[in-house]
UniProtKB/TrEMBL annotation:
Residues 19-79 form the HTH tetR-type domain. The keyword Hydrolase does not apply. Keywords: DNA-binding. One of its GO terms (molecular function) is transcription cis-regulatory region binding. This is TetR family transcriptional regulator. It comes from Umezawaea tangerina. PANTHER family: HTH-TYPE TRANSCRIPTIONAL REGULATOR RUTR, TRANSCRIPTIONAL REGULATORY PROTEIN (PROBABLY DEOR-FAMILY)-RELATED. PROSITE patterns: HTH_TETR_2. InterPro entries: Homeodomain-like_sf, HTH-type_TetR-like_transc_reg, HTH_TetR, Tet_transcr_reg_TetR-rel_C_sf, TetR_C_31. Residues 176-200 are annotated as: Disordered.
Length: 200
């Protein structure tokens, strides 16, 4: 059989235009990180999750380390914007505490973010590039908190939140919202003994 003649319209179809493929691969890599951790990041796993050919992953990312690093960078960019947006309507310390309690006792989407955050910090222990990414994320988060608390208190509050979120992920006996509220309120304002203050 003769090969298709481009002139008669039977030539091989052009490759499908898929401008969002790289972003979809990165999102798939994040899904794999949530479900399996960094050990689950393989070209095949990510390609299957993104529903793309294996060659698409290796075309866009020269190595698994590059794929993982860019996936984490995408997560930090997205999560940084989401975190800042949580405080858009906050005007009082009471409202600040409400937002932070919800952050600890979060929805499934926030659970996903928490898992990714801890996967990033764990991977950053052995990867200087990821360590710089994690450190930048911490600085930006503390800058958001510092708008309400000042820089020193923001650092303490950030550390408290990370610890409480980790405990919420791991515990078999969840902490009550009221206990969480009291701990956060006392960090936001050390003078507070029973709950959050009504005004800043």
């Amino acid at each position: 059989m003769a090969p298709p003649d481009p002139a008669d319209g039977t030539a091989r179809r052009p490759r499908r235009h898929d401008p969002d493929r790289k972003a979809r691969i990165l999102d798939a890599a994040l899904d794999v990180l949530v479900e399996q951790g960094t050990v689950g990041i393989t070209h095949r796993h990510v390609a299957a999750r993104a529903d793309v050919p294996l060659g698409s992953v290796t075309y866009h990312f020269a190595s698994l380390a590059e794929l993982q690093a860019q996936a984490f960078a995408r997560f930090v960019e997205q999560r940084g914007s989401e975190f800042a947006a949580l405080f858009d309507g906050v005007r009082t310390r009471a409202e600040l505490v409400d937002v932070l309690v919800d952050l600890v006792h979060g929805s499934p989407s926030r659970h996903r973010s928490a898992v990714l955050g801890f996967e990033l910090h764990l991977a950053a222990l052995r990867d200087p590039g990821l360590r710089a990414l994690a450190a930048g994320w911490t600085r930006s988060s503390q800058e958001v908190l510092a708008r309400f608390t000042g820089q020193d208190d923001a650092a303490r509050l950030d550390a408290l939140l990370e610890g409480m979120i980790m405990h919420a992920l791991l515990t078999t006996e969840p902490r009550s919202r009221e206990a969480t509220r009291t701990a956060i309120a006392r960090t936001v304002d050390p003078r507070e003994q029973g709950g959050s203050r009504a005004t800043r």
